[in-house]
Amino acid sequence: MKQRPKYLLDYRKDQFSQNGEDGVIEFILSKLPDKNGWCVEFGAWDGKYLSNTYNLIANHKYRAVLIEGDAEKYEVLKQNMKGFTGCVCKHVYVAIDGRNKLDDILKETPLPKHFDLLSIDIDGDDYHVWNSLKDYEPSVVLIELNAHDKPGVEKIHQPGSPLVMGITSTSITSMTNLAETKGYSLICHVGCNVIYVRSEYLPVFHEKKITPLEVFTYEYHSLRDLTLREIVTLDRTEVIRRLNEGYKQINTFGQNHFGDAWNLLHKVLRGSKRIVRQKLLKRT
């Protein structure tokens, strides 16, 4: 049976992650061949808080390289990882050049050249750090982006510039362009992260190449800000969730309060009902 482009979101589950990444990663890794039980995450914070790897470490016996630049967080990270053999904690800010490049940091660890998961979350230079990685090849890359930039927007974070929420960081289109030059394919967008796999693994998850428009979730966008073309890419469950939220607004403030649900219905009734209904039925 043909899968919906966003079907991986069905596996969302939070143990420690922020937006259900734990469950999605668990499922992706369960389908990959040739796993070796190694993962890397930076900034790792304390190893638990909003972590994309702690579930693997604590519940799936993964070995890990965890990198954190903040001194206080690093001390907590070391304490939290004491009970896990095979976890290497590094106190360093990852740079895009010089002696603190990711390649050079990883060479100081027993991490194999090929490993299962790389999670990048450093609030800004994520794109550039991944671009600088040459000597290691993770099977799966989960990387933070600017989820406010819709598909089609080409924007790359200025190296070294401070993070401004919703303004800076890299768009999904530009991140996907980088991924393809490095031999990776897009498979999922979840929260403020996007997930890629080595292109040889794409057929494990999708029948064809997936575009940013097909998997972008618009979680950081109100429905009132979406075009019809964007609305019809939403999964049926997402539309129902937003409708329910909007109806609560309408019941509270009256029909003159144009909540998301009212806005969606308005767009549908303006001549696009058939298109939206067909798209939603295909997702049932």
Q: Give the percentage of residues in beta strands.
A: 15-25%
Q: What integer value in Å does the Rg equal?
A: 20 Å
- Average pLDDT confidence is 87
Distance between the termini: 12 Å
Judging from the principal axes of the Cα atoms, what is the shape? globular
CATH classification, class level of the largest domain = Alpha Beta
Helix/strand-derived category reads alpha/beta
Tell me the total number of β-strands: 7
The name of the CATH architecture of the largest domain is: 3-Layer(aba) Sandwich
Give me the strand/helix succession. HEHEHEHEHEHEEHHHHH
Biggest sheet layout? 7 strands, mixed
How many H/I helices?
A: 11
In the sheet with the most strands, the strands line up as 3-2-1-4-5-7-6
Integer count of domains: 2
Helix content: 25-40%
Q: Which residues form runs of ≥5 with pLDDT under 50?
A: 253-258
Architecture overview:
The protein is α/β, with parallel strands linked by helices. The protein has 2 domains: 7-215, Rossmann fold (3-Layer(aba) Sandwich), CATH 3.40.50.150; 223-282, no CATH class. The chain is built from 11 helices and 7 strands. The chain has helices at 21-31, 54-60, 71-80, 102-106, 126-132, 172-181, 202-205, 212-215, 228-231, 236-253, 260-282; strands spanning 38-42, 63-68, 87-91, 114-120, 137-144, 184-190, 193-198. It has a 7-stranded mixed beta sheet with strand order 3-2-1-4-5-7-6, sandwiched between helices. Helix 3 links the parallel strand 2 and strand 3 (87-91). Helix 10 (236-253) runs antiparallel to helix 11 (260-282). The radius of gyration is 20 Å and the shape is globular. It starts with 20 loop residues before the first helix and ends with a helix. The model is unreliable at 253-258 (pLDDT under 50).
